[in-house]
């Protein structure tokens, strides 16, 4: 009876949508769950109604036309799916997904599941980062695409992330001019990384370089190789203090700051569905274990950034691969072996590109050890770096992140460690003087997002 | 570092830690062996309730003695545990549960606890946010709460300051019984030897009992716990529905923590208790029904723990009936956090050959030699369906 269940996809970004398309082509009608109200995902988030008339200005004529065609195609695919936007999947238990839609709970059995929940900004805490007016780079993009709004009038975009130049270029195209870019990566590291990037995906590298040119044309000030010292302000952010490579300090006045250091995968649901994890030394982070097609278990596939960041194209290809692997696992019509091979090769190559890019935009892990004691690490629970260090240094103190969480509350709040977890890992490792791989990672727990108490009116578990 | 001790304690939960503290303070060379990290199992995962109301009459002497220690925790331990004498309310909404509430109240009073009874308008006045008519409530001002996550490590620190030795990440995998001593083996350290061994292995204590020929009907479970995002601080006392379907308190930082029976059996691996979604929904429904004001609040975290239960819902504390030098302290059965300081002190006194101020005979492991009755509390707090998860 279970094999009659439709395949389920969580997440309607490029990975989930490409997966849906391949399943629909194979004559299936997958259920597609998406937390937000519209398809698109993060990087390819659809523009708000007010912004969509500005699409050409926002992304250029060619990209706008391609995007319109792609979105129309996605809509056709979703029309052939059991499409459920505005649906939060908050837990996975046994072979059921626990969901909340329009404030009501339901429980959905599944037999084959693709998780394509994407990624969010990787954040290293910074003194003052909890001031109003400080955003993540991804958040600055959401403000523009979703809310048709800049994050401020005098903006600093900072960190080491491919989103840095993209977000800045998008703001510039929409008319923002008072933008300062502070790229914390060292130019030498970038030059070294460029070689690997050129080898693996020259096209992506070129796109990045074109963004730089575009920003230069608009005389956007760009500072290279600086370190972020603190965001300052009384009621809200008023300036960013940085340290230049030669040691001089500079205060850049601003009314908004966006920062970030690449992306971290959203893996909570994958973990609840039974995925195992591995530590990647290059990216200094944990990733779910998958095979070449994204399979993570007998009934589980992971696609897109939620298993390993790779960008939009890799996400779409990995979504398609997952679908083909899923169809093959059902013993149906063997799919085109040549296509599978070429997809695998391409996804692997694009992900190697990301690994090289990590060299160009390095994660500033050493900053955790130097965080001032009063810097807030966990903004939900307001836990400082000093409190965490004190807890670790006590006799019978914790030396593993889940215990640090239990003792200090860091990671216990509303966001469940999404924004502090990365800093927590590095700070724990630095304080214990242990490799970061040895201090663990925050375990996922259901609910992965807050769930409204009234949702229990309908429990979906029919007796 | 010597591997000869006066006492080896297996299990760094709160039972083992308090036992270690009092032994170390009476000059014993103590080794506290913990498989993982101290206080990471039920002693760290529990609700933090230091509840005196509704205990069975034979538990009061131990409970009241323990409360004295909680009230002086900072003095006893040298650091705090976020102890808060917030008081506790039981409420009953049916005739039958009202009878039970009044029965609990009179037995609590007979044991020396101060209890106020609220009826009718007084309940409305005290708990205006609670639905239901004809409510009866009993209030005990001496009940309190503490933060379980920080408590055990604090007690262990006090033990090490008194000379006790802590071995974390040290699982006892074998026990050899010699003429006058026990030799304990672990995967990561040389064997350790002591004439006295304390079994404080919580939900895992059963295998040790079995090895020494006194099997116990111990099983592992945990009640599900839920926490909301922080809200303005309005609720001082902990409030328990006497039916057990809702237990709620607010932390001073604003989060509401609630819990509800039935409990859930631990996973097959014995190290975790997953909370099935159905239990989460039941818990949310109970709180939304009793307190409609919560309907718009959100639950941000759900957890449970693994603790040892015995069918009569009483712990096993005291000397082994089969083996000289072996002592037990396990089976908190849902109420072990509160009694732990007294468990530790009484057991330490007994080990030192002194008379404990509380009679430990109701807790003797010997009671399992004849058949033991399952208490009606056990029947109420576990549903048969929970065994199938
Ligand atoms: C969710 C929940 C809520 C609760 N709420 C309350 C409450 O509000 N009030 C209250 O009074 N009580 C409450 N309790 C009960 C209370 O938490 C327990 O009764 C008490 O903590 C038991 O302490 P313990 O030391 O026996 O067990 P534990 O804390 O479980 O300690 C046992 C330790 O032994 C270790 N161990 C096991 N085997 C070995 C081995 N072979 N070698 C080395 N180490 C080993 C384990 O790792 C563990 O750390 C609750 C329990 C739970 C689970």
Tell me what the structure shows.
The complex is a heterodimer of chains A (463) and B (389). Chain A is α/β, with parallel strands linked by helices and 463 residues long. Chain A has three domains: 8-120 and 264-357, FAD/NAD(P)-binding domain; 123-261, FAD/NAD(P)-binding domain, CATH 3.50.50; 365-439, Arc Repressor Mutant, subunit A, CATH 1.10.10. Chain A is built from 15 helices and 24 strands. In chain A, the strands form seven sheets. In chain A, strands 3-2-1-7-21-20 form a six-stranded mixed beta sheet, covered by helices on one side. In chain A, strand 4 (87-93) and strand 5 (96-101) form a beta hairpin. The mean pLDDT of chain A is 93. Chain B is an alpha+beta fold and 389 residues long. Chain B has two domains: 7-53 and 148-218 and 310-371, FAD/NAD(P)-binding domain, CATH 3.50.50; 85-141 and 220-309, D-Amino Acid Oxidase, subunit A, domain 2 (D-Amino Acid Oxidase, Chain A, domain 2). In chain B, the strands form five sheets. Chain B has an eight-stranded mixed beta sheet with strand order 5-6-4-15-16-17-14-19, with helices on both faces. Chain B has a six-stranded mixed beta sheet with strand order 8-2-1-12-22-21, covered by helices on one side. In chain B, strands 9-10-11 form a three-stranded antiparallel beta sheet, with no helix packed on it. In chain B, strand 1 (7-10), helix 1 and strand 2 (30-33) form a beta-alpha-beta unit. Chains A and B meet through helix 14 and strand 24 of A and helix 7, helix 9 and strand 19 of B. Strand 24 of chain A pairs antiparallel with strand 19 (298-303) of chain B. The site of flavin-adenine dinucleotide has 40 residues of chain B, from helix 1, helix 2 and helix 10.
């Amino acid at each position: 009876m279970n094999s009659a269940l439709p395949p389920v996809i969580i997440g309607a970004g490029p990975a989930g949508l490409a997966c849906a398309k391949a399943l629909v082509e194979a004559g299936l009608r997958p259920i597609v769950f998406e937390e937000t109200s519209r398809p698109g995902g993060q990087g390819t988030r659809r523009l708000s109604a007010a912004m969509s008339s500005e699409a050409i200005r926002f992304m250029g004529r060619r990209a706008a036309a391609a995007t319109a065609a792609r979105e129309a195609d996605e809509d056709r695919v979703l029309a052939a799916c059991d499409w459920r936007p505005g649906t939060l999947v908050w837990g996975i238990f046994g072979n059921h997904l626990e969901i909340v839609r329009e404030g009501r709970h339901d429980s959905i059995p599944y037999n084959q599941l693709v998780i394509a929940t994407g990624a969010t900004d990787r954040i290293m805490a910074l003194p003052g980062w909890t001031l109003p007016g400080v955003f993540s780079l991804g958040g600055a993009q959401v403000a523009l695409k979703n809310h048709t709004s800049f994050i401020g009038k005098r903006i600093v975009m900072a960190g080491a992330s491919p989103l840095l130049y993209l977000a800045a270029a998008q703001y510039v195209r929409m008319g923002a001019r008072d933008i300062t870019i502070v790229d914390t990566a060292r130019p030498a590291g970038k030059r070294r990384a460029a070689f690997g990037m050129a080898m693996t995906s020259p096209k992506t590298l070129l796109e990045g370089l074109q963004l730089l040119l575009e920003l230069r044309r608009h005389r956007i000030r760009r500072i290279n190789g600086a370190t972020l010292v603190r965001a300052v302000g009384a009621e809200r952010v008023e300036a960013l203090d940085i340290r230049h490579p030669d040691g001089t300090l500079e205060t850049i006045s601003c009314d908004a700051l966006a920062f970030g250091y690449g992306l971290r995968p959203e893996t909570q649901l994958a973990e609840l569905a039974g995925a195992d994890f591995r530590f990647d030394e290059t990216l200094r982070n944990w990733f779910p274990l998958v095979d070449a097609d994204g399979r993570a278990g007998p009934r589980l596939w992971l696609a897109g950034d939620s298993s390993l960041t790779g960008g939009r194209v890799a996400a779409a290809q990995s979504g398609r691969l997952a679908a083909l692997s899923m169809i093959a696992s059902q013993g149906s019509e063997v799919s085109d072996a040549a296509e599978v091979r070429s997809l695998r090769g391409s996804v692997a190559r694009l992900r190697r590109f990301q690994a090289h890019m990590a060299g160009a935009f390095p994660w500033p892990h050493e900053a955790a050890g130097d965080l001032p004691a009063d810097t807030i690490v966990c903004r939900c629970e307001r836990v400082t770096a000093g409190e965490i260090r004190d807890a670790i240094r006590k006799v019978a103190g914790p030396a593993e992140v889940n215990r640090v969480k239990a003792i200090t509350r860091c990671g216990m709040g509303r966001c469940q460690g999404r924004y502090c977890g990365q800093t927590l890992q590095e700070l724990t490792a630095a304080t214990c003087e242990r490799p970061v791989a040895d201090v663990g990672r925050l375990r996922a727990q259901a609910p992965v997002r807050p769930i409204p108490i009234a949702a229990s009116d309908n429990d979906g578990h029919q007796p | 570092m010597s591997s000869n001790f006066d006492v080896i304690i297996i299990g760094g939960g709160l039972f083992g830690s308090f036992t270690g503290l009092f032994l170390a303070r009476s000059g014993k060379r103590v080794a506290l062996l913990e498989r993982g990290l101290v206080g990471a199992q039920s002693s760290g995962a529990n609700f933090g309730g230091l509840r005196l109301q509704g205990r069975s009459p034979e538990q009061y002497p131990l409970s009241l003695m323990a409360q004295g220690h909680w009230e002086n925790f900072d003095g006893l331990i040298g650091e705090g545990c976020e102890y808060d004498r917030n008081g506790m309310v039981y409420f009953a909404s049916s005739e039958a549960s009202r009878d039970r509430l009044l029965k609990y109240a009179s037995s609590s009073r007979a044991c020396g606890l101060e209890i106020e009874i609220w009826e009718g308008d007084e309940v409305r006045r005290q708990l205006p946010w609670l639905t239901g008519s004809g409510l009866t409530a009993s209030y005990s001002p001496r009940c309190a709460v503490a933060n379980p996550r920080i408590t055990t490590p604090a007690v262990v620190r006090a033990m090490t300051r008194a000379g006790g030795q802590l071995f974390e990440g040290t699982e006892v995998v074998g026990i050899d019984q010699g003429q006058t001593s026990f030799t304990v083996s672990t995967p990561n350290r040389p064997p350790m030897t002591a004439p006295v061994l304390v079994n404080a292995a919580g939900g895992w204590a059963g295998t040790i009992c079995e090895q020494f020929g006194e099997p116990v009907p111990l099983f592992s479970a945990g009640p599900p716990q839920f926490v909301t995002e922080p809200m303005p601080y309005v609720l001082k006392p902990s409030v328990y529905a006497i039916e057990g379907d809702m237990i709620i308190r607010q932390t001073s930082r604003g989060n509401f923590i609630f819990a509800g029976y039935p409990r859930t059996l631990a996973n097959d691996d014995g190290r975790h208790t997953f909370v099935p979604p159905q239990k989460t929904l039941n818990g949310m429904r109970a709180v939304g029904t009793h307190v409609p004001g919560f309907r718009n609040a959100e639950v941000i975290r759900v957890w449970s723990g693994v603790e040892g239960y015995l069918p009569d819902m009483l712990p096993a504390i005291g000397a082994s009936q089969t083996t000289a030098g072996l002592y037990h302290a396990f089976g908190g059965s849902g109420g072990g956090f509160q009694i732990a300081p007294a468990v530790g002190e009484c057991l330490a006194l007994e080990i030192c050959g002194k008379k404990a101020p509380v009679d430990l005979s109701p807790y003797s492991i010997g009671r399992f030699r004849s058949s033991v009755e399952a208490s009606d509390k056990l029947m109420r707090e576990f549903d048969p369906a929970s065994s199938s998860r």
